Structures are given as C-alpha cells and as structure tokens.
Amino acid sequence: MDSELKEEIPVHEEFILCGGVETQVLKCGPWTDLFNDQSVKRPKLLIFIIPGNPGFSAFYVPFAKALYSLTNRRFPVWTISHAGHALAPKDKKILTTSEDSNAQEIKDIYGLNGQIEHKLAFLRTHVPKDMKLVLIGHSIGSYFTLQMLKRVPELL
Nearest 5 degrees, angle CA 13-CA 15-CA 19? Predict the structure, then answer.
C-alpha cells in the first residue's frame, strides 16, 4: 500500500468553453477524451465530482486521487469547476470544437439554474451516453446533482 501511495497519480488539467464560460476540468487517470476513445481499454464508468462553493476544482484533487486509487485505477475521476469560478492562465489554451454546443451561451449561467445547465452541457458533449456515471456532489454540488437527475432522468 505504501508503494502505491508513493506512485504519482496523473491529473490532467483542461480549460474548456462550456456554456460560453471558461471552465476548469481536472481529470484523474489516463483518460482525457472519453467521447472519442474507441479503444478496448476505455472505461465503462466515470466518477464525476461537482464541487461545493466556491467551486474550486483543485480543492478536490486529493479526494479524486484517493477515489482513483481505491478503484484500482480502473475508472477516471473528473472534477468540474462552477461556471465563472476558474480562469485559465494566460499561457493555457481554452479547448473548443466546432461541434461543441457547450460553446453557446447559457442564459443566467451564474445563477443556480445556469450552473445546473452548465454541468449538463458538459456531460452531453464530453461523456458518451452509454457510459455509467457516479455523480458526487459536495454542498451546493449535491443540490446541482439532484436537480440534474430531475431534469435528465436517464442519468440514473
């Protein structure tokens, strides 16, 4: 166990345009693009963390690493910032695609409804429909998660 803890767990940081707003996504594990990865080793499940306030993804890195380690590194663990709560450093590229409906603005994105739609927009574009999800919300992130499940029951 000690040697496992000493081995570094990869965390990939991305900044994407989601709902017209810069969004930080921290991805624990080797999978950075689940949507386009058609390999045999593509995981069947994603653990998705929605933070509480202040919506700062980096706060959850130790938790994400622990989850990833406890699942024997079989499933990716991703954490998304709240819309407007993280800005990309000047030298960091903000990722978009021409087909990305998430680049479109979400009305009142900084309000509760907009934040919920922000997370749903991310999942629609970055996570395959056939992938199982484990949604973990902390504080207001729990509220967002419950509202997401009401709006999109197929997430269950």
Answer: 140
In sequence order, the 6+-apart residues with CB closer than 8 A to the CB of 72 are none
Q: Which of 122, 115, 117, 106 is nearest to 141 (CA)?
A: 115
pLDDT in tens, 79-115: 999 998 988 888 877 777 555 555 567 889 999 999 9
Taking residue 130's Cβ as centre, other Cβ atoms within 10 Å add up to 6
pLDDT at 133 (0 to 100): 96
Angle ∠(78,154,109) on CA atoms, nearest 5: 60
B/e letters for 35-48, b = 16+ CB within 10 Å, e = fewer, are eeeeeeeebeebbb
Relative orientation angle of helices 140-151 and 112-126, to the nearest 10 degrees: 60
Q: How far is CA 91 from CA 15, 51, 53, 86, in A?
A: 11, 25, 26, 14
Residues 6+ apart with CB under 8 A from 71: 47, 77
Using only the alpha carbons of the chain, give its radius of gyration.
Answer: 15
pTM comes to 0.88
